[in-house]
Design a protein that fits this description.
Nuclear Transport Factor 2, Chain: A; alpha/beta
């Protein structure tokens, strides 16, 4: 009898678990959340100020301002597995390959559409920002979407009182 009840409970639970997995596969964005960050804190405001600077530099394709937001040994991997292990090689890629390959409106659209999924403090000197944007830097892999959805995971460290990106992982939402 106990095994039968366990099997019934499992049979009920499995479809519920599948529903959550299917929702994730449909690229539903969860509600925004902050973890380990006090409302109204200086840390929260500094992270939001950092994000504003990040968006502005990307929108304007201002390579110098964008790279100034990164550590010298920043690691960066994009959705096509291009990897950079320092800020100077990333700057060269942005300036000579990525930005010139698209009209300036592309970066501006991406910056305007950037939205936070989560902001997580890892103590006082490290944080993770999870963002996404919808932009037209290449076609969407999802047939029903006109714009391509891209996620950014930014690992930040505080250096000399300023937040800097130590690691960036960029990925597309794909079928």
């Amino acid at each position: 009898m106990r095994n039968t009840l366990s099997l019934i409970a499992l049979a009920i639970a499995l479809p519920l678990l599948a529903t959550d997995a299917q929702a994730q596969e449909r690229r539903e964005i969860p509600a925004y959340r902050e973890i380990g960050i006090e409302a109204g804190s200086d840390q929260r405001q500094a992270l939001l100020d950092f994000l504003r600077s990040y968006r502005d530099a990307w929108s304007e394709e201002d390579t110098d301002a964008f790279i100034a937001l990164h550590t010298d040994d920043s690691e960066w991997i994009n959705a096509y597995a291009r990897m950079f292990t320092d800020a100077s090689s990333l700057a060269e890629f942005l300036e000579t390959r990525l930005f010139p390959a698209f009209g300036p409106g592309v970066s501006r659209t991406e910056a305007e559409n950037m939205a936070m999924i989560s902001m997580r403090a890892l103590g006082e000197d490290a944080a993770v920002l999870h963002l996404y944007t919808d932009g037209n830097r290449g076609p969407s892999a999802v047939a029903s979407r006109e714009l391509r959805r891209t996620h950014f995971h930014l690992v930040l460290v505080r250096q000399s009182g300023h937040w800097k990106v130590a690691h960036t992982a960029i990925m597309d939402a794909r079928d």
